[in-house]
């Protein structure tokens, strides 16, 4: 049993912050630093449909330009989804702004869409804001925003058992493929933006692409960047404006369960298309790396993808604290030392 913090076993403390769950030990107790909350949390939802491929290309570029100019800052997070049916799905959250401020900020984008004959809102842009103290209050959502939550519908279930409606399909999800890639902030610069838009359009011909903005640190405050720099996560996340995720799967499926067996052929076909979509983005960021917690089970060059220049230091920590490989996870720190013949101690 060890205590790890900035003063005691500081190298181990650094390693467990982003070094991959289970690779270095088992955490039995965690002390978290908390931060003051803003007064308001909020969200923006909507869907925009383009009438043609050409219009969709322009919509993608306009959306990226709007994000880079107005949303790449500490107020905004969550995701935009570029779907294969020429549809943009908006699912953004904000903090520290009023509903009126958020609506004003999005007004130029709404006006751009409404001014075009070849784009329209399939779902009108909705903006809501609520006091932070109610953000995890299920009863508040039931009264004011009932479509945002999914209740546990089992008989006798506690009224506190809820999940975000957009996440309900992940329960028991049989994943066919799940890939991620950090996208550098420079891709939003005007000289590169059209190339990025073209890559997202090309990727969407194979599979939908999600850009998760909470997981890229570009636009964060200096204090946040400093804290993130002091972790083992791939340093590419510091300059990334988003983590691109291309993923898909099917309904819950379990070997031997009637009617719920995995559909291997369908899964492989989906995985191929997902790989083709991600390949379009990797052409722009071939060394972007991936997020260890949301990535491909078959991730190539996983040491560099997950941890980049931090891997050598992580391996040294592994050698010091777990030289015999007691703790092992797939594509975890030191797992390359395992083979059919057992564990080979990591070289010093």
Short description:
The protein is of the alpha+beta class and 348 residues long.
Secondary-structure topology with pairs:
Elements: H1 10-16, E1 40-50, H2 53-71, E2 76-82, E3 87-95, H3 99-114, E4 119-131, H4 138-144, E5 149-151, E6 162-164, E7 174-184, H5 190-204, E8 209-212, H6 222-229, E9 240-250, H7 264-282, H8 302-307, H9 311-321, E10 338-339, E11 342-343
Structure description:
By secondary structure, this protein is of the alpha+beta class. The chain has 9 helices and 11 strands. The strands form 3 sheets. It has a 7-stranded antiparallel sheet. The protein has a two-stranded antiparallel sheet with strand order 5-6. A hairpin with a 4-residue loop joins strand 2 and strand 3. Helix 2 crosses helix 5 and helix 5 packs antiparallel against helix 7. The longest helix is centred in the N-terminal third of the chain and has 19 residues. The model has no long low-confidence stretch (mean pLDDT 93).
């Amino acid at each position: 049993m060890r205590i790890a913090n900035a003063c005691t076993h500081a190298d181990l403390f650094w390693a467990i912050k982003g070094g991959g769950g289970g690779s270095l030990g088992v955490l039995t107790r965690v002390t978290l630093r908390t931060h003051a909350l803003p007064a308001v949390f909020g969200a923006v939802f909507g869907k925009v449909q383009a009438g043609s491929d050409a219009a969709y290309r322009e919509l993608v570029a306009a959306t990226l330009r709007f994000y880079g100019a107005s949303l790449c800052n500490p107020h905004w997070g969550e995701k935009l989804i570029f779907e294969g049916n020429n549809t943009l799905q908006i699912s953004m959250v904000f903090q520290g702004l009023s509903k009126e401020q958020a609506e004003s900020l999005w007004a130029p984008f709404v006006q751009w869409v409404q001014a075009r004959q070849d784009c329209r809102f399939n779902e009108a842009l909705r903006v809501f804001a609520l006091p932070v103290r109610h953000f995890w209050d299920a009863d508040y959502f039931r009264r004011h925003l009932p479509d945002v939550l999914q209740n546990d519908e089992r008989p006798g279930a506690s009224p506190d058992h809820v999940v975000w409606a957009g996440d309900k399909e992940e329960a028991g999800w049989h994943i066919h493929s799940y890939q991620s890639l950090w996208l550098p902030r420079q891709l939003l610069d005007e000289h590169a933006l059209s190339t990025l838009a073209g890559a997202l359009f090309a990727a969407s011909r194979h599979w939908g692409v999600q850009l998760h903005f909470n997981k890229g640190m570009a636009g964060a405050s200096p204090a946040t960047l400093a804290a993130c720099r002091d972790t083992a996560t791939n340093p590419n996340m510091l300059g990334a404006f988003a983590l691109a995720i291309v993923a898909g799967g099917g309904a819950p499926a379990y070997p031997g369960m009637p009617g719920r067996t995995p559909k291997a052929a369908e899964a492989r076909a989906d995985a191929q298309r997902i790989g083709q979509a991600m390949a379009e983005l990797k052409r722009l960021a071939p060394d972007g790396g991936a997020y260890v917690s949301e990535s491909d089970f078959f991730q190539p060059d996983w040491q560099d993808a997950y941890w980049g220049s931090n891997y050598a230091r992580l391996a040294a920590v592994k050698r010091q604290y777990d030289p015999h490989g007691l703790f092992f996870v797939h594509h975890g720190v030191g797992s390359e030392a395992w083979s059919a013949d057992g564990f080979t101690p990591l070289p010093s």
